[in-house]
Amino acid sequence: MPFFPKILFRSEVESFLWDVYNNAELVQKIGCAEAKRRFELLLSKLPHPPVFTTVRVNTLFTSVENAKKLLNEEIIKQFPGLNIPIFQHSKLHDLLLIPVIGPRRTLKQHSSQVIVGAQCGNAVLRGAHVYSAGIVSTSKWMKVGDEVSVYSDIEGKCLRGAKYFSESKVFIGNGISELNRNEIFSSSNPIKDKCIKMTEPVYLSPSFNNVLSDYIFLQNLPSAVVSHVLNPQPGERILDMCAAPGGKTTHIATLMHDKGEVIAMDKIAKKVEKMKSNASVLKLNCIKTFCFNSTKAVAEGAAADEQGGPPFLPESFDRILLDAPCSGLGQRPNMVCSLSLKEVTSYQPLQRKLFSVAVKLLKPGGILVYSTCTITLSENEEQVAWALRTFPCLQLQPQEPHVGMEGMLGADLSSDQLKQLQRFELSSAEIYEVDLCNPNSSAEDMSILANNDTIGFFIAKFIKKG
């Protein structure tokens, strides 16, 4: 099988998602057949990467044109003989679009095989090479220099160190082995280096490992939209409540010209260290990181940290980003989702707890942006409806830029309210028959295509009335 045609969900989760598209409000407007078509399109698109790889330029230290020039030189190095143009997004001017070529279904498959885990397989589909931590199995006699075919064990059935695996697997490309089999599976001296250099991936996309790391940041398109919607201003005090790994945090700091204060929190220490590293590489000084549980970020009376860290006094931030923990069902590529229905539906209470904290910490007149990378109603539009009922001080605001769709029907929000929301929905459009590598294509046309074929995402913007 050259490529997996549809994401694997547990049956209970697939039924839950079908109910999202089969809700009475939506079906009344578009009909059951169209709802079914959108749902099937969603399932078929999730295993594939978006049609563009998107990178954000660190505009504090280089121009978009210079970053584009340097990226073009790097792509020529990685793919000699190929002409892959780079486009600047027409509305997100700090975002560059690099076409993803594929799926290439006619690649020859080699007898020597490498089996990787599903997460590693997803990374390969977006341009990564294969590192030892992602390898589950290799052919018995694999040695340095061998041409190998790489497969993703999407169902997690392959035993680590197996010499042969015949069950369900998905071909994701060919590469050259840079280690012997015994080096990969050595328990006494585990190697964490690159093991397979991908030479013929099913999807051709540049590798960004240590590439222009102080000039660019690999970021999904909707994630870049979020910071623009927040619209941070120089000198303001901004809170990023669930910030790791820091992509949006560093974007916020860049948009405010590294002037002011960006507080970035996460409760996992390793992720906080990654945020610090990202801020350092991008030479951003206004970011302060804290390992702290954001549900406890509001100080009671004299409990506030005098050093400026959490917990914080109420109404102490000009703008707050709550990019909430979520079920992540909009992430691409994703060939299999192992979450149970209980896990998928467990995020709503946590999101509401975090939202309540955000409202307390926001100054009157301040801006709160709520976002997720999932496609459910319960974590998106239903949360907006709940917030508007629960906090009379909040008012929905229009978003700029607005390059996604409006909100989905089904949460008893008015038409005007839905228009103020922004949903990047994978079932919104068919994959266009467009020559992505035509350098004469207009940036506007390519931007529209990128807006309509990205990860699933949701954004809501509120103002706290005085």
Would you kindly provide a written description of the structure presented here, covering whatever features stand out?
- This protein has about 475 residues and is α/β, with parallel strands linked by helices.
- Helix content is about 30%, strand content about 20%.
- The chain has 14 helices and 18 strands.
- Strands 11, 12, 13, 14, 15, 16, 17 and 18 form an eight-stranded mixed beta sheet that branches. A six-stranded mixed beta sheet has the order 5-9-8-7-4-6. A four-stranded antiparallel beta sheet has the order 2-3-1-10.
Rg result:
23 Å
Indicate the structural class: alpha/beta
Query: How would a textbook summarize the main sheet?
Result: 8 strands, mixed
In whole angstroms, the N-to-C terminal distance is 59 Å
By DSSP, the count of extended strands is 18
Low-confidence stretches: none
Helix content: 25-40%
Strand percentage lies at 15-25%
**Whole-number average pLDDT?**
93
The count of helical stretches stands at 14
